Amino acid sequence: MAAALPWRLLPDSATEADGRLSLAGCDLEGLASEFGTPLVVYDEDHLRARCREALAAFGEGVSYASKAFLCRAMAHLVAEEGLGLDVSTGGELHAALEADFPPERLVVHGNNKSLREIGEALAAGAGRIVVDSFDEMARLEALAAGRGVRPRVLIRVTPGVEVHTHHYVATGGEDSKFGFTVRSGAAAEAVDRARTSDVLDLLGVHAHIGSQVFSLDSFAEAVGVLARFAAPLGLEELSVGGGLGVAYVEGERAAGIPEWATAVREAAEAAGLTARITAEPGRAIAAAAAVILYEVGTVKEIPGVRTYVAVDGGMSDNPRPVLYGSGYEAFLPRAVRAERPLSARVVGKHCESGDVLVSEGWLPSDVAVEDVLAMPVAGAYGYSMASNYNKVPRPAVLFVHDGAARLVIRRETYADLTRLDV
Ligand code: LLP
């Protein structure tokens, strides 16, 4: 039996009255009946507060990793808050530019940037291109020389540290498709080539050791390696990427952005690095800002086995449980403070048994068909990794602020599902 939902998993502006949950003064069940379900509801002030924390902690140059969640409204918000934007594909770059994001604040990533994508980044005048391989460096130099431009670059380095996270999202070890390894000497060679290049303006080095990393010691260890590597080179900038873990379930504790920045800065100073330290958090800004709302369609009790609560979404709007075994909490917004004695598996509407949202969840025992069921910490890598599996339309997304909700991504329609068919 689990207690009531831990309040700290909810967005900053969460309040309760008569047991009912509101975000920024908007009643969640009311939003579900007005906009339908599944529905992703972002607390805009929460997003802005995390952006401000990142800016205060790292200073100018810190970016938001758009892969966590990007739409026009999010790009506007990030621009207004003064952060940069990390884009890792031509598509993310396009979305950023279409939202008039200031190009000089863009950081362009990707382990396999196509010629087209490199060309698009140059044409946009992106502030930084993070070079991931020798092949890319050659292509970038050729394209930049041809256009008479001098892109500012960072070298993506793999520090060779193993971190405690799912191996699908660990990126800092030797055995990685990303970047140049320090240990093999490739990183030193890449820095050398960029520095002596006529067309590249080398600013510094970049590393991203993985995502959903809780241990600040892992970051400190990686920064130590990077700082010892970078200090003698006299480079201007060291980006530590993103990766700060967030709490999804009861019992998990995560450091905040300020503590993360302090740990990183101390490790860099201890290794004698004077470069500007910057970062690009995604999850730590977006994850806890949103709650996703579903409607319960069936409640099936199998005596002696378990209870299945099926909702009107699933692995198409949140593939994280299936992909990484990620845990979530579930609760009822009509009774947010209620005890949750019912052990239940929250599943979706897709045609496979793997379609699980909460494997071992807890709910109030009176959960019933047509209830709105919510999952907190739904703001990162849910919508951005959503698919149309089983031709299920993707959810609508709202930003709520000061008692008002605005639709920032409309719900997909059946017509959207066939619009690419020729
Ligand atoms: N910078 C780089 C170069 C990255 O590759 C990433 C994430 C970030 C920054 C942002 O990391 P964050 O602060 O959000 O952890 N789909 C997975 C997460 C994959 C992260 C990939 N790279 C998930 O749902 O957990």
Could you characterize what this model shows?
This protein is α/β, with parallel strands linked by helices and 422 residues long. It has 2 domains: 169 residues, Lyase, Ornithine Decarboxylase, Chain A, domain 1, CATH 2.40.37.10; 242 residues, Alanine racemase (TIM Barrel, Alpha-Beta Barrel), CATH 3.20.20. It is built from 12 helices and 20 strands. Strands 5, 6, 7, 8, 9, 10, 11, 12 and 13 form a 9-stranded parallel sheet that branches. Strands 4, 14, 15, 16, 17, 18, 19 and 20 form an 8-stranded mixed sheet that branches. Strand 2 and strand 3 form a beta hairpin. Helix 2 packs parallel to helix 9, helix 5 packs across helix 6 and helix 8 runs parallel beside helix 9. The longest helix is centred in the N-terminal third of the chain and has 15 residues. Ligand LLP binds next to helix 10 and helix 11.
Number of helices: 12
Largest sheet: 9 strands, parallel
CATH architecture descriptor of the largest domain? Alpha-Beta Barrel
Query: What would the average pLDDT be, to the nearest integer?
Result: 96
Please name the CATH topology of the largest domain.
TIM Barrel
Summarize it:
The chain is an alpha/beta fold.
Fold topology:
Layout (H helix, E strand, L loop, with lengths): L13 E4 L2 E4 L2 E2 H8 L3 E5 H15 L4 E3 L6 H9 L3 E4 L2 H9 L7 E3 L6 H10 L3 E4 L2 H14 L4 E7 L21 E2 L4 H11 L4 E6 L9 H15 L6 E3 L17 H14 L5 E3 L4 H4 L3 E13 L3 E6 L8 H5 L17 E6 L8 E8 L8 E4 L20 E6 L2 E6 L4 H4 L5
Parallel strand pairs: 4-19, 5-6, 6-7, 7-8, 8-9, 9-10, 9-11, 11-12, 12-13, 15-16
Antiparallel strand pairs: 1-2, 2-3, 4-14, 14-15, 14-18, 16-17, 19-20
Helix pairs in contact: 2-9, 5-6, 8-9
The chain binds ligand LLP.
